[in-house]
Structure formats: C-alpha cells, structure tokens
Amino acid sequence: MTAGPAAGARPAARAAGPGAAPAAAPEELATPLLDAATARGRAFLGSRFAILGGAMTWVSERNLVSAISNAGGFGVIACGAMPPALLAEEIAATRARTDRPFGVNLITLHPELPDLIAVCAEARVSHVVLAGGLPPGPAIAAVKDSGARLLAFAPNLAVARKLLRAGADALIIEGSEAGGHIGPVSLAVLAQEILPALPEAVIFAAGGIGRGTAIAALVQMGASGVQLGTRFAATVESIAHPRFKEAFRRAPARDAVASVQLDPRLPVIPVRALRNAGTEAFLAKQREMVERLERGEVSLEAAQLEIEHYWAGALRRAVIEGDVEHGSVMAGQSVGMVTAEEPVADVIAALVTEAEAALARPAGAASGA
Ligand SMILES: Cc1cc2nc3c(=O)[nH]c(=O)nc-3n(C[C@H](O)[C@H](O)[C@H](O)COP(=O)(O)O)c2cc1C
C-alpha cells in the first residue's frame, strides 16, 4: 500500500483504439468453476468477479476505477493525501461513470481521516479499505457506523485475528512482491500461514499476481478473491503518463526492487518501485546523511527527516509528469507480465479465462500458459 500526495488536475484517459475488438461483457464470460470458488468474495464485493483493482495513489481515480468495475472487477479509489472535498468529487465522478460497486481506500495516517470517513459515509460508499498500518479503533467504528463494509490489510496471522475481532469484514493479505509500500513476507508464505487458519474469513490475496493461473492457485488455497495493482496501472484507461506506462511495458520482474536502508539509525520505509536514477540518488543521499551524522554536522532527527522526505511528491512526478528517471515508478514484480497497453476489460477477461482453465485442468496437468 502507498500513501501519496493530493490529487490535482488530471489528464483524460485515452479511449481504446478504433480497431480494438470490444471485450466480452463480464456477464458473458462463462467461468463456473471460478465463480464457485470465489462465491464468498463475489457476494462480499457485489461484483461479477472477485478481483479488486488495488488502490494506487494518483493512478486509481475515476477513469481506471470505473473501468475496472464496469469490466466486472471491483475498482477502488486511492484517496492518498487528497483532502476531503477532492475525495467527494472523485467519488461522485466515479459514480457518474459506473453503476457497479466500487470502494475507497483511505490511508490511516491521513491527518483528516475522520473527515474522509465522513465523506464516504455521506456518499454511501459501500466498501472502505483502511490501509497504512493497523487502523485505529475510532476509524473502524466510524466506518462500521456508516454501514460500509470494512477491509483491512493483515501482515500476519496474529494481526489478521485481531482485525477480525475489531470488526474488519474482510482482509487483504499482500505479499512483498507487490508494488508500492510493502511488508517483509511473500504472498506464498502469507497465504499458507493465514488462509487455512481462518477458513470462515473473507480474504483477498495480493502481490505478484499476473496471470489467472495464480488466481486459481490462490482460491484453491482458500482465498475468496484477489487484488491486483501493477497489471492495471498500464492499461488503456489508466491516466498514468505514457512514459510511466512504457516503463512498465519494458521492465522485467527483477527491476521492481524494494528500497534499501543503509543505516539502522535512518529508517527507510520499504517501497517496491522500478530501479532508476532516483533509486541510485536515494542511496547516495543516505550515504551522505550517514557521513554527516558521523561527523556531527547534522542531528539524528534532521537526518531522519531528510531521508523520510526524500521521496515526497515522487510518485506524482512519475505517474502524472512522466519523469520515470527521478520519480518513484512504484511497481510490483508482476510488472514483467505487463507487455502491452491493453483495455482493462481485456486484462480481466484474460485473467478469469486463464483461472477457469486452470481450475478445470486435472491436478498435475501442465498449463501451457
Ligand atoms: C503505483 C502504485 C501505487 C499504490 N498505491 C497504493 C495506495 O495508495 N494504497 C494502498 O493500499 N495500496 C497501494 N498500492 C498497492 C496496490 O493497491 C496493490 O495492493 C498492489 O499493487 C498489489 O500487488 P501487485 O502490484 O503485484 O499487483 C500501490 C501500488 C502501486 C503499483
């Protein structure tokens, strides 16, 4: 998950090219095995497929969110650091583009969190995701009082149980393969640790999912559905800058690296993004601060603050301004599976078709995918 700066003026999304064949309507895709395996997730979300478009700050706005919901997935608006009035606008604009359900992702560290929850309540948002750390009790209560369903991130089994006791209606387990702010554990391990221990809970798996075969495996392990970010960031409907999308299409999985911390005194929040000149400069900045700290030229607090603020505005720089060299091109390892700028509906249709085929194959048969 990722906190980010407030949304400002946004470029319009491009429409699919005139030659593009229209994707099948979500209702026309026959996926009986996947439907059965994800029945709880679909009922919880109210969507055709139990596929959440993970909120991505600056990227998950009205165009992408409505496109995901219209294609049968479940779009989620990324509030990031938007002030309440802008969030209200974004919700209204999304609703004007889709009559299907969608959610809103709020970062718990946002200084105006209570007002943002009030905006969601006023707009009768059906699903709220609280991201960015353990959600505070009053925030959980406020979301529940609004009648919305609450989703929260569980980084381990103990926190998963705690969140369910505290009132979370569903959980997201996000592996370290994901783009944006990440935890230390891979989805392969989280899924084994958490899914069998909580068979009654509605749990969505996220991080590194690029193909329907992975969706099939995860629902067979007990997930009620999945959440994908990276695969949707470079779609036709995404308003991300063409250079941002191009960087996604070019990058292999190994280029999506977690940020490195050089010194235990200067904490770095782990973020997965494409390696670029900015990542190198960040290392140089940390080296410089460590040296200055050791020479007594700067206080520990000042050094920490400089490191903490280094990436401020960097995601906007990459997504909106297209500076993919110095901005933060947050991307998950599944970026290696992004090879074309496709319409959202095509991505979702391919994912569910692959998942259905994988579920239909006898155990042990090769996928050929
Ligand atoms: C560019 C970018 C921005 C993101 N911003 C947020 C955010 O604001 N809030 C959040 O909860 N997660 C955020 N995420 C994480 C996604 O919601 C999602 O969980 C993640 O991308 C899933 O892993 P994947 O990228 O491997 O599909 C972001 C991810 C990316 C790539």
Structure description:
Strand 4 (127-131), helix 6 (137-145) and strand 5 (149-153) form a beta-alpha-beta unit. The protein has 2 domains: 37-240 and 338-360, TIM Barrel, CATH 3.20.20.70; 252-330, no CATH class. 39% of the residues lie in helices and 12% in strands. Mean pLDDT is 93; it is low at 1-19. The strands form 2 sheets. Strands 1-2-3-4-5-6-8-9 form an 8-stranded parallel barrel, surrounded by 7 helices. The chain has a 3-stranded antiparallel beta sheet with strand order 7-11-10, with no helix packed on it. The protein is globular and about 65 Å long. The chain has 369 residues and is α/β, with parallel strands linked by helices. Flavin mononucleotide binds at residues 1-2, 4, 54-57, 59, 78, 80, 105, 131, 174, 177-180, 206-209, 227-231, 233, 330-332, 334. Flavin mononucleotide (FMN) binds at residues 1-2, 4, 54-57, 59, 78, 80, 105, 131, 174, 177-180, 206-209, 227-231, 233, 330-332, 334.
